[in-house]
Amino acid sequence: MELLDSLTDADEHRRRRISLLVNQMFVAEGLLFQIQGYYDLLKKFEPLAIQLGDQEVLGAFYVRMGHCEFSFGFFDQAIQSSTTAALLLAAAGNAEEAAYANMQIGWDHLFRGDFDQTLALEEEVVQKMGDRLHIYVRTRALLAASLACSWLGRWDEAVGKSQAALSHAEGFSDKSQASVAASGISLNYVLKGDLKLAHRYALLAEEKAPTPIDKAVAKLSLAMVRCRGGEPRAATEDLAVFVELSRSVHHVPTELQAVCTLAEGYLLTGDFNRATQTLEELLQLAERCGAKLHLAIAHRLLGEVALKTNPAEAAPHFEQAISIFREIKAENELALAYSGMGRLHKLRGEYAEARRYLTDALEIFERLGTLIEPDKVRRELAELE
Fold first, then answer.
1. HSE toward the beta carbon, residue 228, CA cutoff 13 A
2. Cα-flanking dihedrals φ and ψ of residue 323, to 5°?
3. 282-331: pLDDT as tens digits
């Protein structure tokens, strides 16, 4: 940039400046963890990118802006930027960059809880583009769809997509994308309840991780497995560090998931004050971002905390969680909320209502093939008998 400042203000040098910025996206995110600084440069030179009057260059520029806005948790704004980019790039005939824009929109919809939109965009990107896709775009599109399937409770489909992402990355010997894919598979299995396989793939993600962000995501995967696998106290120590890291680099998507797991860890260790404080922070962040899934998870976990501390406050949280989970079709999470509501009614002595909610939870868990949770619900129902 300093060298370009010393040159004449010609279109050639302007174009080179914008191209330099466009090409630095993955360095800024994956290697330097300097997303905010990179975004500041994009905003500074946005007028220049517009003045060039080149649809292809401007489209690629707006994809990177949308990518940064996704990192900051501005999902609606990111959709606008990436949609503008997709239209410009399609008009310019750059199908590969247009696919990148649509892949990024899929991730925005994922965190907004619009899972069907994410799956539709993955189909459009991966199936239409095939092997012409950049490895990053193909891998990330598959992973977004995989996570959407997991939140919908479609375990086999979720693992199939993330395994396809891993195979594709390994076919190109791309350790970074392979590590991210392995982390995705680990999360698929954590949500299903298969902690043995979740641990195996978290270790694989850690083994392959070459960049700072890959290493951080792999550590998050391991912490999630340890949290649900009987080591919540140790997991919360790692998660607290990860939450601070994600906040310092302004990466809200990872912060959302890390804070969810950290709060769950505090709940499992009986540290209800910290759990409540962490969940209140999660509520504020999820509301700001429009992250419906994480908003509902926060309410569900607040209901679980209230069951232990003040049952009178539990029902509104479970009701709010149930309403959102139904809206976004997050069936496994809905079953968890039903289970919590059933235990609340049991505590109140309202056994018919308790049986109804627990039975509904069990039906969902068994239909989805979820592990661990069905046995817990069966024990609750047996106690009612």
1. 23
2. -60, -45
3. 999 999 999 999 999 999 999 999 999 999 999 999 999 999 999 999 99
Amino acid at position 359, single letter? T
Considering the entire predicted model, what is its pTM? 0.93
d(CA 96, CA 98): 5
What does the block give as tokens for 326?
A: 């139904």
Class of 1-116 per CATH?
mainly alpha
Taking alpha carbons only, the member of 132, 215, 126, 129 closest to residue 162 is: 126
Residue type, 22: V
Distance, CA of 273 to CA of 279 (rounded, Å): 10
Residue type, 238: D
| The residue type at 307 | L
CA separation for the pair 22, 315 (Å, rounded): 49
Tokens of 343: 């235990």
- Per residue in 173-231, pLDDT tens? 999 999 999 999 999 999 999 999 999 999 999 999 998 888 888 999 999 999 999 99
Structure tokens at 237: 């120590």
Q: How confident is the model at residue 131, as a pLDDT?
A: 67
Q: Which pair of tokens denotes residue 332?
A: 């496994």
What letter represents residue 38's amino acid?
A: Y
Tokens linked to 82:
């990436």
